[in-house]
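User: quick one, sequence for these tokens?
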């Protein structure tokens, strides 16, 4: 049997950090004199920090020189880091540890494939770092999702062919990246939004051992 690998996105899959990203972007938007809604924040899922700021400035109709743009990127991240400062295991999404433990018990290699540059400290805070054989995040890629780069690097690090990798993702761009890498894409969240995924679940509580065992045999 050929080896299979599992790749997890972080934000929205392992932890619900979208609310902290939202608070930090909203604070910046308000300081710049415009509103930023929760609905607009949906567009930021899976999207790199730089691209998020570009979209935010488009929403507010604000133009910025490079120096100012870079300073706002730093401001947003300083605020975000303050919001996640006290995160702990209680913020891990339901049944994520159960699935990680199942994979570990079956000696399945596990990687993180995230756009975030804050991935490692978050995994440390929520005490899940030891589960991951490889961490590929915003610091390791040159192309953002929907480009498959982040997942292809993860597969290579795990020593598993791309078509033998399973990806859990909550963002449309992430599902597209997994599909582009010819991986088995599993959408976590609203099926209408993640319609391009091969399988879809609202959350990990819906993923049972039978389904995981089936994936291991695929
Ligand atoms: C993704 C989030 O995982 O990471 C995006 O879904 C976020 O909302 C992106 O913008 C980059 O994160 P960070 O932590 O590097 O600003
Ligand atoms: Mg995500």
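Assistant:
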């Amino acid at each position: 049997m050929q080896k299979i690998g599992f790749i997890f996105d972080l934000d929205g899959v392992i932890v619900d950090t979208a609310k902290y990203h939202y608070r930090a972007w909203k604070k910046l938007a308000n300081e710049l004199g415009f509103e930023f809604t929760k609905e607009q924040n949906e567009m930021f899922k899976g999207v790199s920090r730089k691209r998020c700021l570009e979209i935010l400035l488009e929403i507010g109709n604000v133009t910025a020189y490079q120096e100012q743009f870079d300073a706002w990127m730093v401001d947003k991240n300083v605020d975000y880091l303050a919001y996640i400062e006290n995160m702990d295991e209680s913020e891990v999404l339901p049944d994520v540890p159960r699935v990680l433990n199942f994979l570990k018990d079956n000696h399945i290699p596990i990687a993180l494939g995230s756009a975030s540059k804050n991935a490692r400290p978050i995994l440390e805070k929520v005490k899940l770092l030891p589960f991951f054989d490889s961490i590929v995040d915003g610091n390791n890629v040159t192309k953002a999702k929907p480009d498959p780069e982040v997942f292809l690097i993860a597969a290579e690090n795990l020593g598993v062919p791309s078509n033998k990798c399973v990806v859990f993702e909550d963002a449309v761009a992430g599902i597209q990246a997994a599909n582009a890498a010819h991986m088995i894409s599993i959408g976590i969240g609203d099926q209408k939004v993640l319609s391009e995924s091969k399988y879809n679940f609202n959350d990990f509580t819906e993923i049972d051992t039978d389904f995981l065992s089936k994936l291991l045999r695929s």
